[in-house]
Amino acid sequence: MANEEETTILQMHDLKPAPGAKKAKTRVGRGEGSKGKTSGRGDKGTKKRYQVRPGFEGGQLPLYMRLPKLRGFKAPFKKEYQVVNISALVELFPQGGDITVADLVAKGAVRANEPVKVLGDGETSVAFNIKGVKASASAKSKIEAAGGSISED
Predict the structure, then answer these.
(1) In-domain check, residue 46
(2) How far apart are CA 136 and CA 146, in angstroms?
(3) Which domain holds residue 117?
(4) Is 65 within a domain?
(5) Is 111 exposed, middle or buried (0-12, 13-18, 19+ CB in 10 A)?
(6) Is residue 17 in a domain?
(7) What is the domain-level CATH number for residue 99?
(8) Is 89 exposed, middle or buried (0-12, 13-18, 19+ CB in 10 A)?
């Protein structure tokens, strides 16, 4: 029996945390002996006493007030027309005839799904029957003088 080792069984009441695993939390502001007084916040200054608002520059005129203000106004629902001059119509359709917005898109004069307006720059002798576009007064008079017509539907 003397050389036989005695075996011990680990019991629940024998368990304890490893040394150094349990560390007490730091109780700040509880006297000068233990993280007291300033409690890790350093000394003096406005930011130490209480936080200042974002963008505050110590009384200097802040950046957001030094920059220039936005000017003007952008209408949110403004209609932007794609313009086509009479001179362009004469180049694209030298024979004249019926022209729709789809024809203008196919020739690459305008983009699809956007409103189109015909302007009066240029001269024409051929008759254009244009459908689905707006037109300036000078463009309308020049096209009608050549025997054509413009309709907005």
Answers:
(1) no
(2) 16
(3) 82-151
(4) no
(5) exposed
(6) no
(7) 3.100.10.10
(8) buried
- Tens-digit pLDDT profile for the chain (153 aa)? 556 678 889 999 999 999 999 999 999 999 988 888 888 888 887 777 778 888 889 889 999 999 999 889 999 999 999 999 999 999 999 999 999 999 999 999 999 999 999 999 999 999 999 999 999 999 999 999 999 999 987
Q: How many domains does the chain have?
A: 1
Structure tokens at 46: 């406005």
| 138 in a structural domain | yes
What tokens appear for 12 in the block?
Answer: 């629940």
